[in-house]
Design goal:
3-stranded antiparallel beta sheet; alpha/beta; 5-stranded parallel beta sheet; 336 residues
């Protein structure tokens, strides 16, 4: 009999192999692994790019033509969207907006260095297995086959984000910061996204009845392999121009004065023109405007802008460079 909690034959799970029928879904663990609506995703066949755009913008997320088409094709062709760009430009927010627009559950897998299949897919609940084994032994149960079958029951399976995404309909799966994972995990993820199924040696094969909508993000800290990118619809997220960024701030923060939103956007645009270690993204623009609004400001002057730079800049060197700029001139250009 295998050690409780240990992987079965073939390791922690084989992707895209085995028969179609899935494992049993009885027990408390199975019930907990299927959150969200059970009625199915809205009729995607009736969607067009314009409808996708309207639904996303209704959530407060503004999209351009290229992104609207990429999202439409992701729904139509069941292909992931690969979002690449600097931090804070709206990549992660896209997945949140898609989940709201589709009335779907959002399942997030946050990648990090050293992440592996047991952290992303599933694992066995070793402490509970051990307690069950001791209870069975205390009750005088000595049948090894029965004990092993009980130990590898679905109720002892800990479902991680990728397995939950296969079992949840409708669902948006966010694989965040894939560039932080290693090559082996990329290869594993590529195989999973190709088949949308996984075999658990002790239980059988789990296959998504309807593939989840998948959004992968990368901050480009390293190059992601071409094989994974080729499987996806690629979209580059650049920093928006003044008019578009102002529209985003006004949409996300309707309670902030129009004057303050315009000034903060102008300041951030000026900061991005400098040689900063980390230029502020749209997220920082929103944070800065929100901070100034919390201070009761309807507009901002150079002194207040300097005092609140920490809302937009996160490195000492960037803050010092910003203090050397003529922020008053930037604000004057906006009619102050």
């Amino acid at each position: 009999m295998r050690r409780p909690g240990g992987p079965g034959p073939g390791g922690p799970g084989k992707v895209g192999a085995g028969p179609v029928p899935g494992p049993g879904t009885t027990g408390p663990r199975a019930a907990a692994s299927v959150p969200g609506p059970a009625s199915g995703r809205p009729d995607q066949e009736a969607f067009g790019p314009d409808e996708v755009r309207a639904r996303l913008e209704a959530t407060g997320y503004l999209v351009d033509d290229g992104l609207a088409i990429a999202c439409f094709l992701a729904l139509k062709l069941h292909r992931p969207v690969f979002c690449e760009g600097d931090p804070g430009v709206g990549k992660t927010a896209l997945a949140t907006a898609l989940a709201q627009a589709l009335d779907a559950s959002l399942i997030r897998l946050q990648c990090h260095e050293g992440i592996d299949a047991s952290q992303a897919l599933y694992d066995w609940d070793f402490p509970r297995q051990l307690l069950h084994l001791r209870a069975a032994e205390a009750a005088g149960i000595t049948d090894a086959d029965r004990l092993e079958g009980d130990l590898y029951d679905r109720r002892f399976l800990i479902t991680r984000p990728l397995l939950r995404a296969l079992e949840t309909q409708p669902c948006v799966l966010l694989v965040d910061e894939i560039d932080r994972a290693d090559d082996e995990f990329e290869a594993f993820l590529l195989e999973l996204l190709s088949e949308f199924s996984v075999t658990i040696p002790e239980l059988g094969t789990v296959r998504a009845k309807v593939p989840p909508v998948v959004v992968l993000t990368s901050n480009r800290t390293r190059e992601v392999h071409d094989a994974l990118k080729r499987r996806c619809l690629y979209h580059w997220f650049g920093h928006p121009d003044f008019a578009r960024e102002l529209a985003i701030v006004r949409r996300r923060l309707p309670g902030v004065s129009a004057r303050l939103a315009e000034q903060v956007t102008a300041l951030v645009q000026a900061l991005r023109a400098q040689d900063l270690l980390k230029p502020p993204g749209v997220a920082e623009t929103i944070d800065w405007a929100q901070a100034l609004d919390a201070l009761g400001a309807d507009e901002v002057d150079a002194d207040l802008a300097v005092a609140t730079l920490g809302s937009a800049l996160k490195y000492r060197e960037d803050t010092e460079r910003a203090r050397g700029l003529d922020l008053a001139a930037v604000l004057a250009a906006r009619g102050r």
